[in-house]
Write a structure and sequence with these properties.
This protein is about 30% helix and about 20% strand. The protein is an alpha/beta fold. It folds into three domains: about 35-95 and about 320-485, DD-peptidase/beta-lactamase superfamily (Beta-lactamase), CATH 3.40.710.10; about 100-170 and about 270-315, D-tyrosyl-trna(Tyr) Deacylase, Chain: A; about 190-265, no CATH class.
Length: about 500
């Protein structure tokens, strides 16, 4: 038995020796030099526990130069604004303006409006310091009333915000951010982007109460001033927060006697009532007497409402200016307002859900990558937003074929020049070259947009990192190193040195 098994084994070995040799496996294709260089950048060990999603594509050839996890979903932070801005521009159009009617509820006789003055909100976000200041705008309104023979309003100043729903915040916004201006409420009547600037300066002598002023000045937000003047040379430690309930503001800490005033932006509760109060105060300052209070139309019974007679319409700047005010400073409230405006104009519902449905329809019509986009708000402040880098790149590429491309491109921050990129990439070939949107949340950093390489090739890109534990500056260092590497990459023809490797 043993001899038989030995013979069989020997025969098998002999057959194996006679069999033709198996061809050696071909070596895996080497990574293109540009891909290897970018792998090295995004493989930085300091970010070993983070997740990078990256894509670079040529706008000249349509070919992908590099991709890393480009089909995966990431929290985009304010890169969400790219989506909102592009879709709003395409649906509303470059000539779109917000129009806010001002109406009289009652007859005008002998200079007296025998009823209420009603402002019907359109969602206009530009009645703000960013567009010339609240008081100058309302002084012009007072002039318009006076030109129509009105010097006294016997009723109230009423704000109507029914163009949108009554949901003041984006879905998933963090509760502990709500004092901050970047988390301010949105409304069909939006005043000064939903916040007041609190200036805290020193009094005459150490120990005196600090001097507190508001912009816009208003009695709507009563101030509890607990701040004091500190001795010269002491650290500035003034703070301004919302009161736990109601519209009030609490100021605490110290303002050193030898220091300039510090500024604090504090979000206001109930934008519509805020709007009506400040308008009433401004009209009275301009010499128009107002007998009644400031009211939110929702607080009035239906029996108190009367048909309004149009007096005049306040018109916002055109979409190019609105879009630039949205994208360059990364202004969150514009994002939520534009989202609801799309819902109102296209689906007849001024809700975020209707706006998101418009975006979903457009994404399908434009054949953007399926499954690469799950939005929750218009600004990117929510961590419920998810997007794939390849979706961002596809959308940015699609916009280059739009008649509105120049409006969109010019509204983006420019490296080393303006917006959220004004202090980045200075002294490099990317300054004045990169037009891109930034994004920042805790553990999230993003940058997506356009640039032109040293060889004159136009590129579109998306770079997102999630779950990093370092500073935003550390993440920026890698993103900008990658941009410079691609900028300097020599291209010797369409398709040269392209990375067609599988995702990591």
């Amino acid at each position: 038995m043993t001899l038989k098994r030995t013979a069989v084994a020997a025969a098998v070995l002999a057959l194996g020796a006679c069999a033709p040799a198996r061809p050696a496996l071909a070596p895996a294709p080497a990574r293109a030099p540009i891909a290897a260089a970018l792998d090295s950048i995004f493989g930085d060990t300091l970010f070993a526990r983070a997740h990078w999603g990256v894509m670079f594509r040529s706008l000249e050839t349509g070919e992908t130069l590099y991709r890393r996890n480009a089909e995966k979903l990431f929290v985009p932070a304010s890169n969400q604004k790219i989506v909102t801005g592009a879709f709003a521009l395409e649906t509303l159009g470059r000539d779109f303006r917000y129009r806010t009617p001002v109406e009289a509820e009652g007859p005008v006789r002998d200079g007296v409006l025998a009823g209420n003055l009603v402002v019907r909100g359109s969602g206009d976000p530009t009645i703000s310091a960013r567009f010339g200041g609240v008081r100058p705008i309302f002084r012009a309104w007072a002039d318009s009333l006076r030109a129509r023979g009105i010097t006294r309003i016997a009723g109230a100043v009423v704000g109507n915000d029914d163009v949108f729903d009554d949901v003041p915040l984006g879905r998933g916004w963090a509760w502990d951010d709500l004092d901050a201006s970047y988390s301010a409420e949105v409304s069909g009547l939006e005043l000064n982007e939903g916040y007041v600037t609190v200036r805290v300066g020193p009094g005459a002598r150490p120990g005196d109460p600090a001097v507190v002023t508001l912009d816009p000045a208003t009695a709507y937000t009563p101030v509890t001033n607990q701040a004091v003047t500190g001795a010269p040379g002491t650290a500035r430690a003034a703070e301004a927060t919302r009161a736990p309930l109601g519209p009030g503001i609490v100021v605490t800490g110290t303002a050193p006697a030898d220091s300039a005033a510090s500024e604090h932006e504090v979000a206001v509760r109930d934008n519509t009532l805020f709007f009506a109060h400040v308008l009433r105060e401004a009209l009275m300052e301009a010499g128009i007497r107002v007998d009644g209070p400031a009211l939110d139309d929702d607080a009035r019974p239906d029996t108190a409402r009367r048909p309004g007679t149009p007096l005049f319409v306040h018109t916002s700047p055109r979409m190019p200016e609105v879009l630039a005010a949205f994208l360059k400073p990364s202004q969150n409230q514009y994002g939520e307002i534009l989202l609801k405006t799309m819902g109102r104009r296209i689906r007849d519902a001024g809700t975020a859900q209707a706006g998101l449905a418009v975006e979903d329809s457009l994404a399908r019509a434009w054949q953007l990558p399926r499954g690469g986009f799950r939005p929750a708000d218009g600004s990117g402040l929510s961590r419920y937003n998810l997007i794939a880098p390849e979706h961002l790149v596809a959308l940015l590429e699609r916009m280059t074929r739009s008649p509105n491309y120049n409006v969109f491109y010019n509204a983006m921050p420019v490296a080393g020049v303006d917006g959220t990129l004004r202090n980045r990439m200075k002294g490099t070939p990317l300054a004045g070259n990169v037009h891109a949107k930034t994004g920042t949340l805790s553990g999230v950093r993003s940058l997506s947009g356009y640039f032109t390489t040293a060889a004159g090739e136009r590129m579109v890109f998306a770079i997102l990192v999630n779950n990093h534990t370092l500073s935003a500056a550390a993440a920026d260092r890698l993103s900008e190193a990658a941009l410079l590497r691609v900028y300097n990459h020599p291209r010797t023809g369409a398709g040269s040195q392209l990375d067609r490797s599988r995702e990591r």
